[in-house]
Amino acid sequence: MAGSTGIIDITLSNCINSDLRRVYILTQYKALSLNRHIREGWTSVVAQELGEFIEILPPMQRVSANLVHGHGATRSTRTSYSIGSEQPKHVLILSGDHIYKMHYGKMLRQHLDSGADVTLATLPIEPQEVARFGIVEVARNGEVVGFLEKPKKTELRSPFNPTWWTLRWAFTCSTPTYCCRR
């Protein structure tokens, strides 16, 4: 990994390998090194002449009534406008600070086939890991019916996949990977 900025390379590689080539990156404040890393290492990977891009969306900062706006509704509005200008049918929301290999096309196919408004990726975990993750209860039809954020212990179980239904893999955690219908 190339320090704190290199970990995003994994998410971006997953995007490129999934043939997703219109990517917005929402950064936090003081992201100069990340911006430079993306500009120097990733902009040549996409074909801008074909409408492909990897673009940074820095936080907007506006001061009014002694408040700094750059989170919540303000950030959502700016992000919504940028994404809306592309008019996608679906939006994939990913985290840039997780290490995993995933083909997002498979998730998008599952999302489309299910007709869901929102699809989230989950993983089976062992009971001693529940305090480190958001725990999801998934019904047999695939619908999320319960969620607890990093509980000390939980009774939530996910019988959706019977092969997970053992003492070792009885829990399902949420990953920061979401597919949404726009």
Question: Care to describe what's here?
Answer:
The chain is of the alpha+beta class. It has helices at residues 3-6, 8-17, 32-41, 72-86, 104-114, and strands spanning 22-26, 53-57, 62-64, 67-69, 90-94, 118-125, 134-138, 144-149, 171-181. Strands 5, 6, 7, 8 and 9 form a five-stranded antiparallel beta sheet that branches. A two-stranded parallel sheet has the order 1-2. A hairpin with a 5-residue loop joins strand 7 and strand 8 (144-149). The longest helix is centred in the middle third of the chain and has 15 residues, at 72-86. It is globular and about 50 Å long. Residues 65-75 have low confidence and may be disordered.
Q: What labels would you give this structure?
A:
globular, alpha+beta, 5 helices, two-stranded parallel sheet, 182 residues, 9 strands
Topology:
Blueprint: H1 3-6, H2 8-17, E1 22-26, H3 32-41, E2 53-57, E3 62-64, E4 67-69, H4 72-86, E5 90-94, H5 104-114, E6 118-125, E7 134-138, E8 144-149, E9 171-181
Parallel strand pairs: 1-2
Antiparallel strand pairs: 3-4, 5-9, 6-9, 7-8, 7-9
